[in-house]
Structure formats: structure tokens, C-alpha cells
Amino acid sequence: MATYTTEIASDKISSDNPIHQRLLKAYIAAKPLVKGNLLEVGCGEGRGVEVLMPLVEHYLGIDKIQEVIDSLTEKYPTVQFQQAVIPPFKGLAANSFDSVVSFQVIEHIANDRLYLEEIYRVLKPGGVAVISTPNIRHTLSRNPWHIREYTADQLRDLCLKVFDSVEAKGIGGNAKVWDYHEANRISVNKIMRFDILNLQYRLPAAVLRWPYEVLNRLNRNKLHQQKGQAVTDITHEDYLVEEHPEKGLDLFYILHKRA
What we know:
- By secondary structure, the chain is of the alpha/beta class.
- Helix content is 36%, strand content 21%.
- An eight-stranded mixed beta sheet has the order 3-2-1-4-5-8-6-7.
């Protein structure tokens, strides 16, 4: 169906496995938090549909890519999918969802405050939203697909301007995960040493996307060749929910709307 970018990460490409499992972990960690009427903002390729669908009464997934929506509608006929460019969440009524999940989305949104306000608006009183995003403290290079990334405190402060309470956690990992991350860091640094003019931070994002994709894919393939099973054997169980968000590769925040 789609051409997988390194930004999406595929469960069908072996070298993407550590990233796929890391993203899958957010859905696993959200299982005890979802119920009733669920909205997923930015459902992407549907990575978490099978994980969360059995736990809720109704599942609506929205995403901006119509091709993705069409494919998911065919694959999961009991789930509702809609094409939407957000924010705002046009056509979604206030106080209509018990739960909202939105993983690896906020970093792509220009108006991040409005994005959070819209999640708050559509949540029922007493509802819970769960979001994730990369922890900038562990970012290895500029990602030109991201408008911004956050520290733990920056994201907490932003969320507290909208939500009534915030549980700030992280998605970290065991030794297998951090060994892969360290190998990745060393490999990326070898590539970035040629950027003596610091162009990754000086050029427009649109200019950087193609070389980012090429170099990132080459890097992941190289790590797969070098590490073999150390790449393919990582599972979502190797990723851990951390009580301190600073320890996470990703920030994993649970947002509450007062009843």
C-alpha cells in the first residue's frame, strides 16, 4: 500500500523493528487506561488497533492520509476511520469520548496548544487522554518531519495549561534497548561529523527530508547487519514504562479532564 518512511517505521521491515516495538509499547501501556468510546488522533497505519479495539465499545481513528484511512477501513470493518487534518477536530462533538490516545503526533502539530485543547474539548468529564512524543534529551539528530520536540518539563507545563491534572511518565527500556540506542547514537554521530557547517539546524526542514530518509534508512540497515538478532529480537516487553519521564526515550503522559 504505502511506501514506508523511517518516520512511520514498519512492522514489515526488520531494521525498523526496535522503533516499531517502541511505538507499539505506548498502546500496550495504554490498555488499562482506555474504555467506552475511544478516539485515536493520528492512527497512522493502525499499529494499535488490534491492541485497543477489544477493550472499548467504539473506536474512531482519524488521520490525514486518505490512503491509510481507506486501507484501515477495509482491514477493520468494525472500526470507524475518518480522514481529518487537525487541529481543530472538525465534526467531533464536545464531551463525546471516554478516552483519547494520540501517539507520536504532537511533535508534528504547529498549534500544539490548540491540539491539546481539542482533545480536552472532545473528552467527556472524567475522561482520560494518553499522548506520547520523543524525549528531546535522547534525540540523536534533527528530525525534519518534526516541528518541535519537548523536554519533560516543557510538555508537562504545556499540558497543565489545558488539562486538570497530568501524570508524566516515559517509555524507556532494558539493557537490550539502551544497547541498541547507544549503537545507533555512535553510528549517527559518525554520519553527522561530516555536517561541519551544522546544516541540519540551518536548512529548511523540507530540504532535509530526502537526505534524512536516505541516511536514516542506510543507518538502520547497517545496524541490522552489524547487530543481527540484537535488532530483530527486541520486543515491546523490552520497553518499560518509567515513572520519571526524563528516563524515557519517549514521553508518555496521561491527561485528565475533571469529572
